[in-house]
Amino acid sequence: MESDNSRTRAPNRRTRKSISRKIGRSLPINARPSPTEHSPFLLAPAGKMALRGALCLSVAIAVFSAVSRRPVAAAGLDGSREADRIIALPGQPPNTLLHQYSGYINVDQVTGKSLFYYFVEASVDPARKPLVLWLNGGPGCSSFGIGAFREIGPFLIDTDGKTLCRNRHAWTTAANMLFLDSPVGVGFSYAVNEEVYKTMGDNMTATDSYAFLLRWFERFPEYKGREFFIVGESYAGHYIPELAVVIQINNKNPNAHIINLKGIAIGNAILEYLEEQAELYEYLWQRTLISDSAHETIRQHCKSADDASAVCQAARDTAWLNTGDISAYNIYAATCHDKKVSATGSRCTDLANPCAEYFSEAYFNNPMVKKALHANTALKYPWVGCRTTTYNLRRFGDSPPSMLPHIKALISTGTRIWLYSGDLDAMVPVTASKRSVEKLKLAVAKDWRPWSTASGKDVAGYVIEYKGLVFATVRGSGHTVPIDQPERGRALFMSFIKGHELPSSAPQTD
Amino acid sequence: MESDNSRTRAPNRRTRKSISRKIGRSLPINARPSPTEHSPFLLAPAGKMALRGALCLSVAIAVFSAVSRRPVAAAGLDGSREADRIIALPGQPPNTLLHQYSGYINVDQVTGKSLFYYFVEASVDPARKPLVLWLNGGPGCSSFGIGAFREIGPFLIDTDGKTLCRNRHAWTTAANMLFLDSPVGVGFSYAVNEEVYKTMGDNMTATDSYAFLLRWFERFPEYKGREFFIVGESYAGHYIPELAVVIQINNKNPNAHIINLKGIAIGNAILEYLEEQAELYEYLWQRTLISDSAHETIRQHCKSADDASAVCQAARDTAWLNTGDISAYNIYAATCHDKKVSATGSRCTDLANPCAEYFSEAYFNNPMVKKALHANTALKYPWVGCRTTTYNLRRFGDSPPSMLPHIKALISTGTRIWLYSGDLDAMVPVTASKRSVEKLKLAVAKDWRPWSTASGKDVAGYVIEYKGLVFATVRGSGHTVPIDQPERGRALFMSFIKGHELPSSAPQTD
Questions:
Q1: What is the spatial distance between Cα B168 and Cα B154, in angstroms, rounded to a whole number?
Q2: How far is residue B440 CA from its own chain's centroid?
Q3: Where is this region: Disordered (chains A, B) (predicted)?
């Protein structure tokens, strides 16, 4: 399998490939690596479009897979609860009282698929707190390396790539957090037979994740029946509704293990990818990040959201180059200019550093860290946050053009559904997400209003409550809300798992 | 004269007045206090519209005034260079080697008009550096209190309202900076006969400012003939072009003192106020800060940019309330919740505090500070950053609906003209400014490109160079660029006074 560490490749600026790498690296939780790598997807090859929004088929495949391929011991590593216990992570702050586990669960004997998880019990009173599965997107991004160690876990990695810092906004004070590297080939997850990566897609991801959950509950039986939520972002806009549908269908089977799924929440969710990509340039233009002439050229040459003509692609590429070195994932964020880890570290004062992904890669490629995590040290490629050359939307199978049928199906089961959008993300623009939600034609239960992290504080965003779905924005955040607005992200999460309304914002001041 | 300190008024929330106060306070360099206080201006009373864009008339009045009312000693305070020297300001850091002056120059004997200035020589080699006049807007805002002590002067005021902190991004390293409280009635400037405030408008402001300059050069003769620039923001979009036109016309008079005006630069300039106000709600909607329904109501009920009907005003008020307690001057800024000065101060670590205007008011109302500044201590009202109940667009005379004729006239004189826009300002949205500039139909000399604070660094904004005018955006800044993006603001200023292109931004990364 190829290395996805783009630092090993020679720079090739001002070409389509360079744009793709740029976006891929600027924040690795990418929806897809580049607006210039669309064409195969835009052409919509028939083989990839088995679902095309046909939820029944998707569900049928998932159910079938879950039943026919019962999780069994496989050729890969497979742990036990006690073997998975983490004694201490290298560089962990002293006096850390945390119950952490990590290791593998095998989900398929034939190909030797092993899914890597990291589980952190709530820091206080875990028995009374819900269980939350966090999933990053990509496809190809590590929920463990990004979600747990850059977003919402108990630790963040310092600029030296060695020291762990306490995360003041960790979600582990509120919930028992389970991070899953999914599908195999992502992060520390793998398959003995790597050929399986070539056939990977949404359905297999959902099937394997469901199989993982069944076995994980066997390993942690006190969580059986616990209130369960799935939260994540970006391409998890596919993973989460698909897995939730599989769970809800299986829960109806009298012989199945019941997973007490209460709700799902997805940030900057990829729901209708082509629409979101078409909106990207509108979004940039309205914020005066591309010129009128670049915008006009796109208007003239791109006939539709899925126009894959050379002239349209060229217009879009030019427009994107026109923006300069900004991140499509947060249009106002600082840029990473020095990708080396710092010799001394920042002593945990620089956690918002735009180069954080490089500190993660240094940390997770340290053999001592891999050992402490019980990760497979025999993998032939380095750990990367996003394995985007193996997995991206060009190659990922069963990726429906619209996730709205899944959302509708989940609303009908009474699953709590929250969608939220960091409003500075150009990759999955809030304006596109808002339009997708409006297409559901749900009745408004409580109209648009500003919300806050706590009653009476600054406006953290806006929220509109529909019957069956809550849509919230997070003001001043890009694609990854817990990185850009950790306090707002955590407040939103707390309200979500409690099923509470978001707090009101401060009244008008005089 | 009434006090404009809104803290003395009882709060009256959710009314038009409260919205006006809110916006007025949220950042005091306001274009006008409230979108709800437009109607008298929107109705365009004939008496106020003497100019209506008729530049020749404006210029004629200004020239006439400058000639007929020669600056003479008046009934107010009037200093001398040595009397104006500031020994030290209370709370000033030790070992400050600065030549600072402040005091009054009388510009009219009849009404006793005295204009207050603060002048700081460049910290190194002042004789080889240009002279820059800085003007804040409003109308009614203090260039001294806001411009010098919150934006670009050598000191900023700490959270205790007592201590002065060094401003790392002061423009005084690059230029000799002159701050003028203009017109009379603003900041420490005053008229003995306060009735004159009622007749104040653009023309009298330009006339008085020109008269001020002539006398100021007599007091500081070594600056006669020095390269001279005028820079400012907001309603200085009126003041600056008008004063510049007066200077350029008078410079043609063989008997007049020549002011060596090289250029003007204006940030978030009010150029076409009605268009900018109409754009406000589009701007907020595109950034998902108001709901679709509020936006749709405006579309239905507001026929044009100057629709002053009750139903349109109500729609706009509702939309604005809909945003919650955010600032129209920087849509992503933090809000000031505690308006008290802090007992201990932050030791100069919290200079981005959103409550900074309250620290300024505490400082400038301290009698020891007034004395050190040679300010008139006999004024019957407190010092405020913006005297918006005395001066706002409702009452301000001779305010042309479009400043484009002035800009064109200045282009024809070869005056360097830079317009820049913090792109997070909703009051004078970058989108509206861009449109105004496009109306000038200037030839493009160098097309849209990203710029940076120094070659190869982050994208600081975008710039397009026309023949005769440079238009630049400042990425991630609200209405007051030097407060929100001090490094970017200073880099832009440096390029402007040197007449250099803005530095290129970092190349695309891999």
A1: 8
A2: 23
A3: 1-35
- Rounded to whole angstroms, the Cα distance separating B22 from B39 reads 18
| The residue count for chain B | 510
B36 in Cβ contact with B313 (< 8 Å): yes
Q: Which residues contact B401 (CB under 8 A, 6 or more apart)?
A: B44, B49, B52, B53, B272, B273, B274
Q: List chain B residues with CB under 8 Å of A14.
A: 508
The amino acid occupying position B102 is: S
Distance, in Å, from the CA atom of A473 to the CA atom of A505, rounded to the nearest integer, reads 13
Residues of chain A with pLDDT under 50: 1-75, 510
Residue B203, Cα to own-chain centre: how many angstroms? 17
The total of other beta-carbon atoms located within 10 Å of residue A356's CB is 23
- Residue A234 falls in the annotated catalytic set: yes
pLDDT (tens digit, 9 = 90+) per residue, B165-187? 999 999 999 999 999 999 999 99
- The DSSP element (H or E) to which A114 belongs, if any, is strand A113-120
Residue B45, φ and ψ in degrees, nearest 5? -55, 140
B423 vs A287: CB contact, 8 Å cut-off?
yes
Please judge whether B294 and A18 are an interchain contact, meaning their C-beta atoms are less than 8 angstroms apart.
no
Write the pLDDT tens digit of every residue in B313-356: 999 998 988 899 999 999 999 999 888 887 677 888 888 899 99
Output the CA torsion B429→B430→B431→B434 (10° steps): 130
Chain B residues with beta carbon closer than 8 angstroms to that of A457 = 337
Distance CA A396, CA A251 (A): 27
The answer to whether the Cβ–Cβ distance between B335 and A509 falls below 8 Å is yes
Which of B182, B234, B433, B477 is catalytic? The answer is: B234
Residues comprising chain A, all counted: 510
Inter-chain touch A293–B447, beta carbons under 8 Å: yes
Exposure string of B441-476, with b = 16+ CB inside 10 Å and e = fewer, is: ebeeeeebbbbbbeeebbbbbbbbbbebbbbbbbbb
Percentages (nearest 5) of helix, strand, coil residues in chain A: 35, 15, 45
Structural domains in chain A, sorted by start: 6-46+273-322 (no CATH), 49-271+345-372 (3.40.50.1820), 420-498 (3.40.50.11320)
- Judge: A291–B462 Cβ closer than 8 Å, yes or no: yes
| Pairs of CB atoms within 8 A across A/B | 161
Which of B325, B508, B509 comes nearest A508 by C-beta? B325
Q: Chain A partners of B7 at a C-beta cutoff of 8 Å?
A: 510
For residue B457, the chain A residues in CB contact (below 8 A) are 337
Half-sphere exposure of A160 (CA within 13 A, CB side): 13
- Count CB neighbours of A218 within 10 A: 13
| Residues ≥6 apart with Cβ < 8 Å to B304 | B278
CA distance A330 to chain B (A): 11
Element (H, E) at A466: strand A461-466
Are the Cβ atoms of A25 and B434 closer than 8 angstroms? no
What is the rounded distance in angstroms from the CA atom of residue A84 to the CA atom of residue A234?
29
- Which of B336, B464, B476 faces A332 most closely, judged by CB atoms? B476
Q: Which of B502, B501, B331 is nearest to B422 (CA)?
A: B331
| Residue tagged active-site, from B169, B238, B406, B479 | B479
In this predicted complex, what is the ipTM? 0.85
Nearest-CB residue to B322 (from A322, A448, A475): A448
Percentage of chain B modeled with pLDDT above 90: 73
Structure-block tokens of residue A108: 């398929």
**Amino acid present at B308:** A
Residue of B nearest to A283 (CA): B286
Closest Cα in chain A to B17: A510
Cβ-nearest to B509 among A25, A291, A431: A25
